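Risk register update: the risk that structure generation would not scale has been downgraded. Supporting records follow, first protein first.
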Amino acid sequence: MNFDLNCDLGEGEALSKTRALMRLVTSVNVACGGHAGNARTMDTCVRLAKTQKIRLGAHPGLKTEFGRGLAEIALQELELLLLQQVGALEKIAGTAGMKLHHVKLHGSLYHATDTDPHLARAYLRSVARW
């Protein structure tokens, strides 16, 4: 039986913790600058994932309340947020010779798409671009 041990990274943890976790997981969700993360942390996570041969995923989120709480977001705002955040990580990954494997929403965005079918479809349409 195969398992995927997955972890959210680039969310402000110490680099030593990022490195230690990368040695244990098979895929990562990298914060893309919404709830956490920036170009430097994304680049670090991408390079470590490449070195460890780990599947790379985008982890977009809202800026408010560390991406927690109730997400009040319009369809067009969600699509733009995904384009910006996932696009940023995709660009950094491409520069390092990697491709994105998945997109996992953070916190309130995840819950909003779980409860609102219109947001869920917008999420799926956006992810289909990749």
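Supporting record for the second protein:
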Amino acid sequence: MVKKIATIAAIRPNAYTFTTGSDLVTFPKVVYTTDDKYTSGVRFSWTAEAPAADISEATNPVAGRVTIPVHTATAAVILTRAIMEDSQFDLLGYITMLLGEGFGLGEDDAFITGDGVGKPQGFTIHANAAVAHASGGMYVISGTNGAVSWGLSGTAATTVGTQGITGMEAALPPQYEANAKWYANKATYAMLRALTDSQNRPLWQTADAWPSTANGMAASLLGYGLVKDQFMPALATDSLSVAHGDMGGYYIADRVGLSVEVLRELRALKDEVIIYARKRVGGQLVHDWKLKLLKCGTS
């Protein structure tokens, strides 16, 4: 069979995936946004070996919840009976493979940019994706409309390391670095490789920017691995084209795996057969603090 090779679905292999028996999954959540050091407002006091005059209740964790709805996706391929009867190879197996490929890539697209209406909510659509990191949100600006940047290199000590790729890395709390990776499409990585300093030297060092025997055929950016996902947003003004962090914060709830049925009766009078595929899955970014996004803009 002469055909192209499909692109890579990269979110599911890096996300937290589980099976559910319900159409709505609910998780308890500690609501705490004060800083990235503690998980709640619970603190202790040093007593200096003297009994406290009064015992007051510690600040309680504020209980909240996160819900992930499960959505249904379907697809169908219509074939004539003659094609199925006269095929020179396993046509049904081939169609099943194409359906599986379509579902895998389609859900990957939704995990990134899905609006959450009848489909999973993509991590670039999360409410905090529209909030700046400095205000407790997810995005760091590139400082240039429609383009990536390495990072602000001005003389003001308060702004160095707050923008671009270096600003994203700085914004990610250190406890999430162990499983952190970069996520972008290939064209965005190409733009990053083209960034140079005043002497036209690549800011992204050649030894790390491309796979080679020296780096074990695994390119890296600031020491973190790269994931190429062609469904990541293309570069445009204010686009969220680069993600950095632990994708394990994105939850995928599998309700019913991909099923393929051959329906012969529905279009029997037309001498046609329907190959029908169906899947039920939900997805949502639950730990938004594990992921930072590069907003290709100035504010």
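DSSP finds six helices and twelve strands in the chain. On this basis the risk owner (M.S.) recommends closing the item.
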